[in-house]
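Hi,

I'm pasting everything inline rather than attaching a file, because the server keeps stripping attachments. The sequence lines come first, and each chain or strand is labelled.
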Amino acid sequence: MDKHDYRAPPPDAGMASDAPRTAHVLPLVQTWSRLRRQLVPLIGDNGFGALFGRTLRLVAPAWPWLSLDASSKTSAALLAVLESDLAGADAAAAHAAHEALMGTFTHQLGALIGPALTARLLAESTAGDGQQQNQQEHK
Amino acid sequence: MSEKVTLGKLSTGVPGLDVLLGDGLTEFSFTLIAGAPGSGKTTLAHQIMFALAHPERRALFFTVLGEPPLKMLRYQQQFSFFDMDKVGTSIRYVNLSDDLRAGDFSGVLERIMREVEDFSPALVFVDSFRSVVQTARSGNQGLWDLQHFIQELGSRMAMWQATTFLIGEYTQADVEANPIITVADGMVALSHNLHEDVVVRKIRVIKMRGQAHMAGSHTMRISGDGIRIYPRLLAAVPGAYSAIERDPRRIPTGVAGLDELLHGGLPQGHTILASGPTGIGKTILGTHFLSAGAERGEHGIAVYFEKHTARLHNAALIELTRAGKVTVIEPRSLALTVEELLDELTETIERTGATRVVIDSLSEIGLYLAPEFRHDLRLTVFRTLALLAGRGVSVLVTAGFEDNQPDMRFSIDNLCFLADAVLTMRFAEIEGRLCKFMTVVKVRGSVHSNELRAYRITDAGIEVEDHAVAYDRMLTGWPTPRPPRK
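And the predicted assembly:
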């Protein structure tokens, strides 16, 4: 992870009673963080922000608790707002909204650069995760 | 043994570019690709990158403030050279716009170095370089900083042994005037200037250190396969000035009387020009030439520049086309470049294995050509015939001109000098009728009849009389009966 990567707050940052509620959020936000790490070098922070912002606008009507905060300027800030939104929802709803966001985001990217190249870029991001996970396992 | 350093050469993968550069691109060189928007700079860079990049020779493509990377990927993947499998593994794209906005040149340079150290590329591309320059002018950074940036980039990339390309939206005049650009080892300028409403793309290698590159502007085209460059160079003719053919194989022309005049047919591989005024039968002769080939199992190509309603297309040709024995090339562009025509001819010859070609007619080609080619029809015909000669195909070309007797001419624009054989077909007024006659003016490397023979066009085709005409002064248009010999 480089210094720009989004880091989820430590589990003990919130109140003890919040812990079960936020546990489901971490893997979801990590997925977005990986995607961001993969795409920002390619399309820039603004490019990622614009694509994510559009995705939110398309998905938000079905999940009104998703914030459409135009003041978030960086991709890191956008993902921080997403984390907070997901943490406020129950696990099932958070997961469904995440799936919808990811599907729409992928679709948006695919409409621009084609499904083949999109799949390639996303697969690469997943492969990178695998490597990192393995490294961690060997520690 | 020479102890001079050997410059490694890279084959660019852009057809024609290696010839222009003087045997490929020098390894570790620092080349500027310059040109106005839309001139094909990014496409050229991508084509070179996809040709050269592989897992052991990786490429980094930096985008600055020019074409947004997503759009670039969207459009570049339309080209056949864009190999999806290389993206990510052999080719990595990096966007520098945030770095440039946030910091100064040193920040950009450090980011480039970080990426280079991380990915270890052998090829580095920076697109669009003009964005970097513009930032310098509008911001607080001085020209010195920019020069320093470019010099640093050039020397660091050379130390890293990376062949580097800067892609910039410069015009040719900018490139030549800007002292900053002298840092570059090579400069390639692309242009697409408007001339009489027509654009012909051009490429020019302005400099290429350590190499004898070809000077001047050369035509290029962009198709679905990317860029193709046409160096001003004729294709070599196999066996030229080395093989002697004393008794060339002759092929039938499809008109028995003409074969007789040619002493057994046209030498195989020759180009025969059939010239004459309108209505003299040049197009019919072309069809006979293709039919004669088809009867012997030869495939033919008909390049037709004459246009008329479909119902007037000759039935014999339609049958040949339907039977798959003849392929018709019918150009429609009115801004045709010679290269486009030659590409289509080459592709069709290779695809069909054709051994006979008919071009009907040279006098109409000019209507289709882009102005710069139209102004030198002779060069266009010369290049076309040179290509066909190199391919060893037998060719019949027609040329029409207004009859202006008694002016004894055999073609327009001195085209008759470009053909191996010339057949002239003319009218003469005899006994109240407009009669046709033909004569063979020349056949290179072969004897032939010098008789003037009358002929008729009937349902059976072109019927040539078996004896010379019985009139004198035929070529004046007003012949007189030849008095019986005493």
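The interface with chain A takes residues 68-71, 73-74, 77, 84, 87-88, 93-95, 97-98, 115 of chain B (CB under 8 Å).

If the labels don't parse on your end, tell me and I'll reformat.
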